[in-house]
Design brief:
It is built from eight helices and nine strands. By secondary structure, it is an alpha/beta fold. The model has no long low-confidence stretch (mean pLDDT 90). Helix 1 crosses helix 8 and helix 4 runs parallel beside helix 5. The protein is 42% helix and 18% strand. It starts with 6 loop residues before the first strand and ends in a 10-residue tail after the last strand. A seven-stranded parallel beta sheet has the order 3-2-1-4-7-8-9, with helices on both faces. A two-stranded antiparallel ribbon has the order 5-6.
Length: 274
């Protein structure tokens, strides 16, 4: 889906789904993408890589070091995005840490649980808060549809959630709780921002071919086979199968979609009782 000359900002670009979303925006025709990460070199690498995918001849990209747990750092991020591109039309929050100490609830590592809420939950809240504040001040944009002009609002925010935002998984209460909280942030932000024409949605993938999953597969013999068998479609998602949905939720085709968690799981959760 073409995104015309709209601008984008993007958080957490080091590797995996977040970085691929930035590249997908470039491929979809965005005029500019800002890549951010707590590690500036990682953001710069993702930014440089995006140039190979860009289809807009006016494409520009930038990289910033951002601490997602810092309110001030988030404010600086959006200020620089607006200074660079004039406005923020869509923003993706994909910051997060992975489970290191899985355990049943009786043996839950509380310090890791707290870390998940400090980074994954607080970081997402601060991102949505900072971007919403800027988008509220922007003018609405319009798209000429088949039956006339369509109001695209003032911007779109997409959070990278998970199937764990909807269903639990044994032994990872820290991850499940954080992802449920992220879905709560998404829904509340969608409701609060609706009068301003700002849409807020989430994508909820299950297993995806990412460096994080590769490490899990390498460290656990037979895990890939078990995961693949659990998916009705018989395979794990590609990163771009997630970022393609992010692009759709950013564009005109989703102009009346807000507050949803879009499941991307090859049918996995269809087999689960909720």
């Amino acid at each position: 889906m073409a995104l015309d000359d709209f601008r984008a900002t993007h958080v957490r670009s080091m590797r995996g789904i977040g970085r691929d979303c930035g590249h997908a925006y470039a491929a979809a025709g965005a005029i500019g993408v800002i890549f951010t990460d707590i590690n500036l070199a990682s953001a710069q690498l993702a930014s440089e890589e995006s140039k190979a995918f860009a289809t807009n001849p006016s494409y520009r990209t930038a990289a910033l070091a951002v601490d997602v747990s810092s309110d001030q750092s988030m404010d600086v991020m959006v200020e620089k995005a607006v200074a660079e591109f004039g406005r923020i039309d869509y923003a993706v929050s994909s910051a997060g840490i992975g489970v290191r100490r899985p355990a049943e609830i009786a043996d839950t590592d509380v310090s890791e649980f707290e870390s998940f809420f400090h980074v994954n939950v607080k970081g997402s809240l601060l991102f949505v808060k900072a971007v919403s504040k800027v988008m509220k001040q922007q003018s609405r944009r319009y798209h000429l549809g088949r039956t006339g002009p369509r109001d695209l609002g003032r911007g779109a925010i997409i959070n990278i959630a998970s199937c764990s935002s909807l269903v639990p998984t044994v032994g990872i209460v820290q991850y499940t709780s954080a992802k449920h909280a992220l879905m709560g942030i998404t829904k509340n932000a969608a409701l609060d921002n609706a009068p301003y024409g700002i849409r807020v949605n989430a994508v909820c993938p299950s297993w995806v071919e990412t460096p994080m999953m590769d490490r899990a597969f390498d460290g656990t013999p037979g895990l890939r086979e078990r995961v693949t068998k659990a998916v009705p479609m018989g395979r794990i998602a590609l990163q771009e199968e997630v970022s393609d949905v992010v692009i759709f939720l950013s564009g005109a085709g989703a102009s009346y979609v807000t507050g949803v968690g879009w499941i991307i799981d090859g049918g996995t959760t269809l087999q689960m009782s909720t």
